[in-house]
Specification:
Elements: E1 2-6, H1 10-21, E2 25-29, H2 33-40, H3 51-60, E3 64-67, H4 70-75, E4 79-82, H5 97-109, E5 114-118, H6 126-137, E6 142-146, H7 156-161, E7 166-169, H8 173-182, H9 184-188, E8 193-196, H10 198-229, H11 233-241, H12 262-275, H13 281-305, E9 312-316, H14 331-341, E10 345-349, H15 354-361, E11 366-367, H16 371-375, E12 380-383, H17 388-391, H18 395-401, E13 406-409, H19 416-421, E14 425-428
Parallel strand pairs: 1-2, 1-4, 2-3, 4-5, 5-6, 7-8, 9-10, 9-12, 10-11, 12-13, 13-14
Bound molecules: uridine-5'-diphosphate-xylopyranose (UDX).
């Protein structure tokens, strides 16, 4: 099928490339001329493992190309995917201006019947508004359907090509039929399809992210009690996660969640419910608990520094999670702002996200090229992103580089015994502090089964 994908961001670029890999002929469109130019030169503007290679392959076989002209791409396509940004709106909820303007261009350019697939995350009911708008703008039938993405940054290609499920939202059998045709190669491999109304599909996306965020805020809140009574939240995680009704995933206590989805989607859900006169008691607590979790971690760093003058903190990680260069809503920023306000000098290192972070933080901190440079002379190391590079460190070398002796593990990802064997203090989230020489070598200190 001939497909146009409007928006070459994290979702559009991955979706367009994967649709090409499924055998479709895809034109990926972006309004940013520089981005289209880079893509045409084989330069990929985002870090997503495996994406550059897949783009190169799909361009080489002639299934994928890039353009700046939405109208032109619409006219040569049967189906148009809208994957443009839906950033948070100041008054709460979403700013859908990019989405509606792209839909308007598509409708006005349509030179025959089209299917318009809303891939961007939208509030329930938005698809119907788009359908009403395009029906007034075009004499041709434009079938508006919803196909939410469940892509995690860092594993986006795998999440697209080996999905837990694919959701189709449509108001007619024709819409479902077109989506089935597009995803036929995955259906043939046995991946599960759920067809439902547009509103149900739109709400499914929100409910999925809100559920995942709830789990994280839940375990983070319980970790505060664990910290207070000397329990170990990692043991508790295994103790509850082995209940098949609960499962261990998305129950990792830490510094709090970030990213372009959870914070935005949870607040949009709360906003929409309040707009409808509903009272989201539980959902309102998810974001508040997350904000508090970041503040608690920052305060613990200051407690360890204990008002030391000319204190230096080495922040390990700037991305909102490992395997991405995305810093949107990164917990690292909340921690860094708190440290700077307290007069602390901050040095930071991130394998991928230094440049994206610099666009936000400017020169308020020192960006280091290596972990050693970042760690040199630091009183405290604060790990805020769980990059593998940090987990497999030589702690004797780290201890020699530091001026102080304290490691704060904001992601509970380090082998505490190795840290303390190097003569360092190990602090984590919802786990007892370990002094030099304490704790087990290698393991995370989680109780073994049986
Ligand atoms: C999320 C959803 O997982 C994905 O399905 C949706 O399409 C987009 O939003 P993403 O934001 O890329 O994906 O990252 P994810 O892996 O879900 O992590 C989100 C945040 O939660 C990160 O900051 C991560 O560090 C944090 N997290 C995740 C935890 O704190 N604990 C966990 O157990 C898991």
């Amino acid at each position: 099928m001939k497909i146009a994908v409007i928006g070459c961001g994290y979702v559009g670029l991955v979706s367009g490339t994967c649709l090409a890999a499924l055998g479709h002929h895809v034109v990926a469109v972006d309004v940013m001329e520089e981005r289209v130019k880079q893509l045409r030169q084989g330069i990929v503007p985002i870090y997503e493992p495996g994406l550059s290679e897949l783009i190169r392959n799909e361009v080489a076989v002639g299934r994928l190309s890039f353009d700046i002209d939405t109208a032109k791409a619409t006219q040569s396509a049967e189906t148009i995917f809208l994957a443009v940004g839906t950033p948070p709106a100041k008054e709460g909820g979403y700013d859908f201006s990019y989405l509606f303007s792209a839909a308007e261009i598509v409708a006005k350019a349509a030179n025959g019947p089209k299917t318009l697939v809303v891939k961007s995350t939208v509030s329930p009911g938005t698809g119907s508004k788009i359908a009403q708008m395009v029906a007034k703008l075009s004499p041709h039938k434009i079938e508006v359907v919803n196909n939410p993405e469940f892509l995690r940054e860092g594993t986006a290609i795998q999440d697209f090509m080996q999905p837990d499920r694919i959701v189709f939202g449509a108001s007619s059998p024709a819409g479902i039929a077109t989506l089935r045709e597009i995803y036929q190669p995955l259906i043939d491999k046995g991946y599960e399809i759920f067809s439902m109304s547009r509103e149900s599909a739109e709400l499914t996306k929100f409910a999925a992210n809100a559920m995942l965020a709830t789990r994280i805020s839940f375990i983070n809140e319980v970790s505060q009690l664990a910290q207070a009574i000397g329990a170990d939240i990692e043991s508790v995680r295994m103790g509850i996660g082995t209940d098949k009704r609960i499962g261990p995933a998305f129950l990792k206590a830490g510094i709090g969640y970030g990213g372009s989805c959870f914070p935005k989607d949870v607040q949009a859900l709360v906003h929409q419910m309040k707009t409808l006169g509903l009272n989201p008691l539980l959902l309102s607590g998810i974001e508040a608990a997350n904000t508090r979790q970041k503040q608690i971690f920052a305060k613990r760093i200051l407690d360890v520094i204990n008002d030391k003058k000319d204190a230096v903190v080495a922040v390990w990680g700037l991305a909102f999670k490992a395997d991405t260069d995305d810093v949107r809503e990164s917990p690292a920023f909340d921690v860094i702002e708190t440290l700077l306000k307290a007069g602390v000098t901050v040095k930071a290192y991130d394998p991928q996200a230094a440049e994206t972070a610099r666009k936000v933080l400017g020169d308020k901190i020192t960006y280091c090229k290596t972990l050693a440079e970042c760690t040199w002379g630091a009183d405290v190391v604060a790990l805020v992103t769980n990059w593998n590079e940090f987990i497999t460190q030589n702690w004797e070398m780290i201890a020699k580089l530091m001026r102080g002796k304290h490691i704060l593990d904001g992601r509970n990802c380090l082998a505490s015994g190795r840290v303390t064997a190097a003569g360092l203090h190990y602090h984590a989230v919802g786990r007892p502090e370990l002094k030099p020489g304490e704790g087990k070598m290698g393991s995370m200190g989680v109780v073994s089964a049986g």
